[in-house]
User: Which sequence fits this backbone?
């Protein structure tokens, strides 16, 4: 069937990456292929009243003729399309859309393949871009701040007869009335609430400080003008609150018991501080690199504006939607009947596809390929936070596909290092709270 079809390149339409190829397939060759397919089918087809292989060809053609013709035409078009793509050395992105063409000529069927190709990426000069590299050295002060956060994460509560203070927990009953009538959503029983956490309206919050168990008080609460419930927006109502329990908060001391909670089996406080510092240094390094990496990627996108195939963006969007759905399901969110639209991720997917193409070209052009020792260093870093690091390393290397994440990180690190070596870099100290997201 080498002479079944001929193809010609058509002019570009639509985006700069769209291509069209016109093709014709010879009907006589199609009929020949249909006959061959039906002959093959007749050897195994089963029909009532006939033994396998003995069904009359006319009946086989009646039953399977449409299928054989569709397959023959599809194979011919696919062959012609593939040959023309190879002849023109086109890098096709995604799958073609095949449309019928009316003016094919006598004895022929005409088709047009519409598809996208990968863009030609020519890397631009990065030397004019400035990367602001944040710096932070972990000192004892940062370790103490981290220990404070860890202490507050392990706060306990105990019932007390003293008056409530900020960060205590109350168990209360309350009922709200507007013009003497209870309103929907304004009543609760055995409601647990943290004092000073901002869970209630400001006027209500103010009344929770300095109260004791068994106390009942009545007070006014003003709702903001933009409150979500229209019937309460801007209104002043009266609440009656009964305090059933005051639970005093207790932040643990930094002692042997606290060290054991952080994984130091023998309760050695000095060892605990060493561990906290090591974990903090890893986290700081990761966040600093993350901030630099984001700037590097932005700089690459800025100096290398490229158009990307819509097909690749669509595929990336679909994958991101599926990943988001799986993530939410793993978090216990019932997503069975909740749609997660790929279109929500189009902008992020476009960025990913652009960066993927740019990084691939940069790695090839500047020989930034990942070395085995770089991957091993990242795996070793992954394993440091586990009880048995050697077992974690063995797990990663037992199946090569598990190394994909480490390889991707190593490649990104190579790109970051190259950009930092070729762009303008300014180092700026960053505050610990700002880096860790604790500025508030």
Assistant:
């Amino acid at each position: 069937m080498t002479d079944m079809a001929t193809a010609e390149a058509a002019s570009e339409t639509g985006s700069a990456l769209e291509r069209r190829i016109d093709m014709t397939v010879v009907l006589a060759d199609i009929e020949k292929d249909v006959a061959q397919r039906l002959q093959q089918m007749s050897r195994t087809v089963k029909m009532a009243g006939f033994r396998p292989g003995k069904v009359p060809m006319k009946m086989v053609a009646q039953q399977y003729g449409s299928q054989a013709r569709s397959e023959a035409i599809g194979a011919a078009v696919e062959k012609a399309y593939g040959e023309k793509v190879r002849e023109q050395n086109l890098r096709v992105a995604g799958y073609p859309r095949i449309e019928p063409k009316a003016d094919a000529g006598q004895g022929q069927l005409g088709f047009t393949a519409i598809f996208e190709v990968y863009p030609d990426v020519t890397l631009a000069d990065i030397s004019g871009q400035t990367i602001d590299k944040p710096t932070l050295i972990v000192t004892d002060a940062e370790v103490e701040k981290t220990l404070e956060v860890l202490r507050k994460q392990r706060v306990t509560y105990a019932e007390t007869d003293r008056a409530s203070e900020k960060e205590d927990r109350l168990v209360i009953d309350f009922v709200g009335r507007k013009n003497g009538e209870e309103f929907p959503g304004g009543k609760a029983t055995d409601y647990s609430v943290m004092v000073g956490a901002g869970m209630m309206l400001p006027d209500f919050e103010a009344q929770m400080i300095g109260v004791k168990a068994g106390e009942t008080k009545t007070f006014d609460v003003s709702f903001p003008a933009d409150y979500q419930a229209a019937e309460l927006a801007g209104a002043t109502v009266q609440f009656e609150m009964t305090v059933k329990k005051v639970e005093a908060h207790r932040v643990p001391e930094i002692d042997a018991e606290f060290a054991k909670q952080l994984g130091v089996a023998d309760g050695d406080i000095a060892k605990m501080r060493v561990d906290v510092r090591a974990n903090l240094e890893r986290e700081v390094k990761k966040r600093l690199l993350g901030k630099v990496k984001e700037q590097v990627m932005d700089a690459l996108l800025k100096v290398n504006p490229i158009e990307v195939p819509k097909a690749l963006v669509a595929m990336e969007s679909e994958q991101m939607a599926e990943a988001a759905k799986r993530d939410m399901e793993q978090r216990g969110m019932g997503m069975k009947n909740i749609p997660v639209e790929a279109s929500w991720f189009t902008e992020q997917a476009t960025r990913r596809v652009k960066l993927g193409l740019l990084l691939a070209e940069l790695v090839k052009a500047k020989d930034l390929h990942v070395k085995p020792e770089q991957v091993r260093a990242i795996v070793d870093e992954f394993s440091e936070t586990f009880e048995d690091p050697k077992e974690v390393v063995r797990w990663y290397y037992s199946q090569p596909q598990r190394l994909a994440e480490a390889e991707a990180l190593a490649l990104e690190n190579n790109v970051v290092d190259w950009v930092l070596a070729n762009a303008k870099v300014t180092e700026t100290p960053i505050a610990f709270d700002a880096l860790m997201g604790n500025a508030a």
